[in-house]
Structure formats: structure tokens, C-alpha cells
Amino acid sequence: MTNWQDLLIGSLFPAVPTPLKNDGTPDFDALEIFAHWLVHEQVDGVAAWTEVDNIASLPIEDRIRILEIWRIALGDGFTLVTAVSDLETAKKAVELSDFLLLSCSKDAGESIIERCKQFIDLGRPVLLDYWSESPDRNPFDLDTLNKLLDIPEVAGIRLCFKDQFIQLQDLVTHILLKHPQKVILTGTDRMYGYSLYRGCHGALTGLGCIFPDFQRELIDSWFMRETTLFLEMSRKVDHIAEALSADSLSNYRQRLLAGLAYLGKIPSQPDQLSPVDKVLVTATLDVLGAPADVKS
Q1: Cα(241)–Cα(248) distance, integer angstroms
Q2: Residue 49: left (phi > 0), alpha (psi -120 to 50), or beta?
């Protein structure tokens, strides 16, 4: 049986958005430039089609084109994680992907186990995507989680909590005790460093696109037990997380795209942020050292 921790411990997978043209359609040329830049940073791969990438309304041909761009940029040395929720879409994505991130809706119940096995039959390992906006809105109960993590081809789980640090503590502890061979990735921007401290093995977040070198140092310093550097980088990453944090996923995406445009990694995006939100993002990046010669 594969020890997924050997492969994924210390991993950094930015959840990547797709740049947009002024008419709101995908800007594939800009995506190619963005992908070329990001894969030369200190990342282990990327996660596509996640919550930071508003692609649900796109035709499948455009969605596949997004994956193709990332697959070409990543080559064989990096990992492409693709978030999928249904079998038909998974069938179209699997050949370009290294892992399938199984997106789960609230109260998925036993049906999620069958769907997980169907994904595995496609020939790729699965990561579970555990989204929880509040303690009473979990994708599945603990018994279902245990059954999923008992499946050998389930490599691990990404934990996304809005602000429930107690639930994070309890779930990480449970997984470490009951399923010690599984990898735990944090998907929680606002508890990034704390998630590592509590037992997460790596990160898969939209935040990973902004100053990924900070997050590389944060993750590495934790596993190297360099406490002073870990605290310093945790503070910097927390500042970025606070600037990107929003009440809605739509606003979060817009802040992330605005930040990438300000850093010169993608073209200026359709202006959907309020002036206050834009200043919050750009001022934070300035304080953290956005290079003056690349800011748009």
C-alpha cells in the first residue's frame, strides 16, 4: 500500500484561479503566462477547478483547456490535483490529472462512498475535500469519513473550515489517531500556520498563489522545527489571508485575482471589487514587499 505521507508531506498546492478577459470569458493566453510563472516558484503542483476557479458555467471544452494548460506547464515533475464532484466530469479530467479531489456537498451520506470508489476505478488516487462553514454544516458524518479513509486509494483529505478552530483540532486529532497513514492538507487560509501546528502535512489553498515563497518557508520551517522563522512566516501569511478573506467565495476570487494582477502575474481583471477591498489587498501586498517594478 502506498504511504501517501511519503509523497505529500510538506506539499504546497496553490488552488489556482483562471484569469478573465473584460467580457468575463477565460483568458487562456494570460493563464499560460501565469502557469509558467507559478510552476517556477517553490510549489509542488497546483489544484485546478477548485472553489477559487469559477468555472461551473463554462463549457466542458473550456474547462478541459484549463487543465491542458496546467498539465503542459507542470510537465512530469509536478502534481496536478483536479477538483471534481460527478463521475462524468471526472472521466473527462482523469487523463490530465494526478489526483482527483472529491468535492462533497452537505450531507452527502453513504452515496459519497460509492462515488469515491467510482473515481478510484478511473485509475487515480483520491483526496477528499472536507468543506465546513459551520459545525452543523459538514459534508458527511464521522462514520462515513472513517469508511472513506479506510479505502487504500484515498490518499487523504483537505480540511476547509471558515473559523471553527475547535472542529479543526478534533478532526485532525481523529485522523492522526485512526488513519495515521493518510495525508492531511489544510485548505484554511485563516488558520494556515496553526493548521500545520495541529498536524496538517501540507497546504492546498488559493492563498498559495500569492507570495508562494512565503508559504514554502512557512511549511519548511515547521517541519525543520525552525521556530523563529515559522512564527515570522506565519505572521506574514496571516496578513495575506486577512486581506483575501471575504464573506463570499465570489468576493474571495475577486480579491485573489486582483492581488495577482497587482503583482503583475496576470493582466488587470474586470473591476468588480469595491475601492475599499482593492486598497486592502494592494496595501497589504505593498507592506509585504510587492516589487515596485511589477505592480500593475
Answers
A1: 14
A2: left
d(CA 144, CA 148): 6
Provide DSSP, 257-296.
HHHHHHTTSSPPPP--S-HHHHHHHHHHHHHTT--TTT--
290 within domain boundaries:
no
- DSSP class of residue 190? G
61-103 pLDDT, tens digit each: 999 999 999 999 999 889 999 999 899 999 999 999 999 999 8
Q: Look at the chain and report how many structural domains it folds into.
A: 1
CATH of the domain at 115: 3.20.20.70
Environment class of 251 (CB within 10 Å of its CB; exposed 0-12, middle 13-18, buried 19+): middle
Residue 250 lies in a domain: no
pTM for this model (two decimals) = 0.93
Is residue 79 included in any domain, yes or no? yes
109: left (phi over 0), alpha (psi -120 to 50) or beta: left
Domain that holds residue 50: 4-211
